Amino acid sequence: MHPVLKKNYGAWSWHDRPRPGVLHHVAKSGDEIWTVRAGTQRQMDLFTIRLLMDIADEFAEGYVRFTIRSNIEFMVSEESKVQPLIDKLTEHGFPIGGTGNSVSMISHTQGWLHCDIPGTDASGAVKALMDELIEEYTKEEMPNRVRMTTSCCQINCGGQGDIAINIQHTKPPRIDHDQVANVCERPTVVARCPVAAIRPAMVNGKPSLEIDEKKCICCGACFPPCPPMQINDPEHSKFAIWVGGKNSNARSKPTFHKLVAAGIPNNPPRWPEVSAVVKQILNAYKEDAKDWERIGEWAERIGWSRFFEKTGLPFTKYHIDNWRGGRANLNASAHIRF
């Protein structure tokens, strides 16, 4: 923590944003500190980390911190140091922004590089999408802040977001029964299933597993402890986009996001179909929402039928659900039913 932050912890008088990507805080003691926020790739190589630390040492008094959305923040105690820091970061390709009413960097899961369960590469989809939205990151022209998430499986450790981009498996795992006994600890696999859809079985005289497909929610949780239960499928694993999620309780309570688009091709390395849908939603939101409305608040105000009209997204029977319908399609949710 920067010494000025330590000294004035909990004793700040006011703050403002001199420009997008720069925060200015003034303490009751009169001390001032400027924070410059830059976007980074979440999964960084050693060269990039050393470069950022060298910039911090030379231009930012040696203090940095990372945000949950992979932004890096450099803190300086003199206004004269702000512009040279911005110039150096820009020179090396790190965009300045992500503050105020902007599209911040996208919070995402590990993807192919680290995770043992992904149906897609969340970090790759983020890179492709932020290339399209870079101006919305460096400017503050949205009605309110936009927080986006991407998850590479349906377990969704990416969390809730104004716009969430998640992979969906639509078919139960295909089991290679010849390999299960050699590779998998069957009790672990059974315990891993959140809806109790997996049970031990004997197949062709060998210990194996079987799936109750009426219970299976196609989440993919069984795949990491048992690779012979292959669920990734180039045809049936698709992207889905959800909107209206919110973690904060500022001005309105936290909300879960809602499905607005499904069956979008999982098409690396640039995922153009995903980017097109997200931009449709953002353009409609930017044009129609009132000041300070989050995307979910905007959709609730105009009604979900008008949301689909304004965004140009198709509305299908799969978007309709209520408690009565929920009882019928419980096996397609994460609720446990034994």
Strand and helix map with partners:
Layout: H1 3-7, E1 12-19, E2 22-27, E3 32-39, H2 46-59, E4 64-66, E5 71-76, H3 82-91, E6 107-108, H4 122-132, H5 134-138, E7 148-151, E8 163-169, E9 174-175, H6 177-183, H7 186-192, E10 198-203, E11 206-211, E12 229-230, E13 237-243, E14 258-264, H8 272-288, H9 295-302, H10 304-311, H11 323-328
Helix pairs in contact: 2-3, 4-8, 9-10
Explain the overall architecture.
With 338 residues, the chain is of the alpha+beta class. The chain folds into three domains: 3-91, Alpha-Beta Plaits (2-Layer Sandwich); 107-170 and 234-332, Sulfite Reductase Hemoprotein, domain 1; 174-229, Alpha-Beta Plaits (2-Layer Sandwich), CATH 3.30.70. Helix content is 29%, strand content 22%. The chain has helices at 3-7, 46-59, 82-91, 122-132, 134-138, 177-183, 186-192, 272-288, 295-302, 304-311, 323-328; strands at residues 12-19, 22-27, 32-39, 64-66, 71-76, 107-108, 148-151, 163-169, 174-175, 198-203, 206-211, 229-230, 237-243, 258-264. The strands form four sheets. The protein has a five-stranded antiparallel sheet with strand order 1-2-3-5-4, with helices on one face. Strands 6-7-8-13-14 form a five-stranded mixed sheet, covered by helices on one side. It has a two-stranded antiparallel sheet with strand order 9-12. Helix 4 (122-132) packs across helix 8 (272-288). The chain is globular. The termini are far apart. The relative contact order is 0.10. The model is unreliable at 333-338 (pLDDT under 50). It holds the Pfam family NIR_SIR. This is Dissimilatory sulfite reductase, beta subunit. Residues 207-236 form the 4Fe-4S ferredoxin-type domain.
